[in-house]
Amino acid sequence: MNRPWLSLTPLIQRKIRRTALLVTAVFIMLFMRLWYLQVLEGRHYATLSTNNRLRLRSVEAPRGFILDRSGAVLVENRPSFDVYVIPADVPDPDETARAIGAILAQAPGEVAGKIRAGQAHPYQPLLLAREVNERTMVAIEERKMNLPGISLKVHPIRSYLDHGIAAHLLGYVSEVNREQLHQEEYRDFQPGETVGQAGVERLFDAFVRGINGREEIEVDAQGRLVRLLDRLEPQSGFNLVLTLDKKLQVAAEKAFAGKRGAVVAMNPQTGEILVWVSGPSYDPNLFAQRLSRGAWEELVANPTHPFQNRPLQAQYPPGSIFKLVVMAAGLETGAITPETVFHCPGHFTLGRSTFKDWKEGGHGRQDLMQAIAHSCNVYFYQAALKTGIDPIAWVAREFGLGQKTGIELRDEATGLIPAPAWKRDTVGEPWYPGDTVLSGIGQGRILVTPLQMVTMVAAIANGGTLYRPWMVKRVESWGGEVVAAYGPEVVRKVNVNPRVLELLRQGMLRVVEEGTGRSARISGVQVAGKTGTAQVVKRQVGNAGMTKDHAWFVAFAPYTDPEIAIVVIAENAGFGSVAAAPVARAVLEAAYSPARGKTAVAQGPGLGAQE
Amino acid sequence: MYLDRRMLATFDWRMAGITLILIGVGIITIWSGNLGSPSPLKQSLYLRQALWFVLGLFGLLAAAFVNYRSLARFAYPIFGTFLALLLLLTVVGGAGSGAQRWIRVGVWTLQPSEFMKLALIVVLARYFEDYKERLGELRLLVVPAIVALVPILLILGQPDLGTATLLGLLTLSILLLVGLRFKHLLFLAFAGAALTPLLWSFLKDYQQQRLMVFLYPQLDPLGAGYHITQSKIAVGSGGLLGKGLKAASQSQLNFLPASHTDFIFAVLAEQWGFLGCLAILLLYYFLITRGLEIASEARDLFGALMAFGIMAMLMVQLAVNVGMVLGVMPVVGVPLPLLSYGGSSLLVTCVSIGLVMSVHMRRFLY
């Protein structure tokens, strides 16, 4: 036979045959070991197996803490004492049910039913009561002899500070549910284990969760603990260090209390989230315990949607905030210059339509800076018309409007920047000049999320860099070692002339210094901002209390070298200058003049409604 | 692909039959071993395994009937692809979860390290065939050793000590066949010991911790020690005839961890007893010795080395896994080929066996 490697065949064939001998030897050794274990020692192991009085209990690992940027605790754990029963160790379910039912104030019939149902998995501990008080614990310990199969177990339970500050960002934990147990993602979970269900708790669950420990215990015939044979300590989860600033967060929640809407603050130089408020909120502590069905239904059915994560899920018309975009587009195309002057008689007529200014009688002759400072509608009707819708829509998209910011939280809304093609395709109507006029003041069909607004303001403040918002700085071990670290991510450089951005910043400064945003002024630091009042489309509103306008305010500070960009939207609260700007001031005061902060918030706005 | 009468006549029915029987036993064991599990996911695992079984069967037949020479032609791109996948896992895999072993493709999760085993065997076989005139030269072994080290280090970093060890032993067995001597091995051992501290320093702290627990299970007494004790009780209590499918309490009552993956042989031993284990092990023995026979009769060096490498892979996995269950080997996470739950492992093993059959079917064809 023609073998190309003929010269080597005998050697390699010999080696392969020798390997077969080695294989045979290994198999013989395995057979001998099996013979020893199963036949020679078989009876011994059979006894061990039937009398297996060893029990393996899992010890839940505490989740890692969640800390703010400077290490202040936002989420921690507290101990909870729970009562369990191991069905295998209960000789008479009725007897045990009567005894424990009396202590826990539960119906004995129900308890007995539970124990019987648990016989299918007799060694799986069944939870009877969670977080029992000290008196109950003592009662159980005293009557231990009459309670075969009943045991007490301590386990760490999640505890959110101040009834859950930044609840929508942090998320919550609850027991892994039946549906999840079927999913590959949760392959390592046992029923009853805790898992992050929303927000950062969910996103970083693998880091925060830790590794459960185990206890090997010996029990007597009644299933009572005889001795602890061995214990593998649980390993706590890693701590998360957020970008959030607790001081600013608390100030924002206090100033926004009772309002509906959102407050988000961001570091414009990095995209770090500093403040995250979504109102109304909910208490994540409710989920860490077992939430009653009634309480859950109440939360879900609430017409104000406390679960909605408004900063990224709620979409609003931007109102006058959008004048910044129109201004940028006008300057960029050369349609207007800072010297462009329009006359404002209080209304603007185009064909047969008349568009009103918010100020009765109008603003008179206005140049660009005056118009932005006083938020003159008529000026921007004309500026938009002169610029045209396409450049406006293009600049809006450059600033990140109409697209997801890319934050790692789930279900982010996209918003909408309408353009002629879009209107033709979805509404079936051509784009009218009147649509462009309305776009000039951010009405029409434009929709934005609060998060998009704050990333836009951040980009204006930092000279044109659009950052992806992020909220976890580091993952740390308890020893302080850094397990994972995260940093800023640039989405893109905004393709708008730096000189135009400079003019936008000057305009925003004028708004706060002398215009509609004066109620956001604070001592010591120059603030730049823009107010907005978004009209609520009446036909979409079913509820009478929800027809008032939405109040917007965006700002950044300090004017030179900005450190904070902030957005406030208060739903159905009226004028941005009255309802939103003071909230931003409270946050900025917490950052820059904490001593004055307390009195200032109480003062309230001293300015009349104007915009 | 061209089919020849002689080829069909040489289709190794016994080898295919043994493979099917072993997979079938595995599915039954996965099903019965998880009957008592409180987790609905675990109760349905056997269905997933059955699905992979169908896929594996196609893989086996395809590999057997396709000319394995085409594999030799594409050896380098194949190896490169799986190396790239491993690299991808290292770069992006760590973001949310701790372990970086899996890649998701729709509902399937794939474990590239499993596929790497076969890719490495193929690339080594191709390399030595290219240089067959220089076989026996020691210098020839340097490049393949370095090439093998790359995926081994990547997998070690995942960290998956079991698969990394397996790849190492696999490479060594092929090198021994083509010219490496035991005295060289001794030298390699020293060099390896000297290199370890350097590699160690590249790992992150928590990775080092995980590796330490892998290397020294006594650091984790209740973990590994408990597993071994319970595994021995399960095996031993099976006795001569076993307890049957449903009475096997040791594995059903969750005393046994990972009863469907790494410790599946313990479940089998409790259910089927010594005689059952003997039968199963004999099936493996026949499979491996038959594979080695095919290797020694192959028509070219590529086929011989590939068949040999595949059988070495099966043998090492079997010895490490069963040895661990019987308490004579350290606890290393290595699945039992064909029996353990795990789609990637099953698919790769099926394709591998198919390739060996292909070597047999083509030994007279030119």
Structural description of this entry:
The complex is a heterodimer of chains A (611) and B (366). Chain A has 611 residues and is an alpha+beta fold. Chain A has two domains: 61-93 and 101-137 and 149-242, Penicillin-binding protein 2a (Domain 2) (Alpha-Beta Complex); 246-603, DD-peptidase/beta-lactamase superfamily (Beta-lactamase). Chain A is built from 24 helices and 23 strands. In chain A, the strands form seven sheets. In chain A, strands 2, 3, 4, 5, 10, 18 and 19 form a seven-stranded mixed β-sheet that branches. A five-stranded antiparallel β-sheet of chain A has the order 12-11-23-22-21, sandwiched between helices. In chain A, strands 1-8-9 form a three-stranded antiparallel β-sheet, with no helix packed on it. In chain A, strand 14 and strand 15 (353-356) form a beta hairpin. Chain A starts with 8 loop residues before the first helix and ends in an 8-residue tail after the last helix. Chain B is an all-alpha fold and 366 residues long. Chain B has one domain (5-361). Chain B contains 16 helices and two strands. Chain B has helices spanning 5-9, 13-33, 40-43, 45-65, 69-73, 75-92, 112-130, 142-156, 161-177, 182-202, 205-215, 221-237, 249-252, 264-296, 301-325, 343-361; strands at 103-105, 108-110. A two-stranded antiparallel sheet of chain B has the order 1-2. In chain B, a hairpin with a 2-residue loop joins strand 1 (103-105) and strand 2 (108-110). In chain B, helix 2 runs antiparallel to helix 14, helix 2 (13-33) packs antiparallel against helix 16 (343-361) and helix 7 runs antiparallel to helix 8 (142-156). Chain B starts with a helix and ends in a 5-residue tail after the last helix. Chains A and B meet through helix 1, helix 2, strand 8 and strand 9 of A and helix 9, helix 12, helix 14 and helix 15 of B.
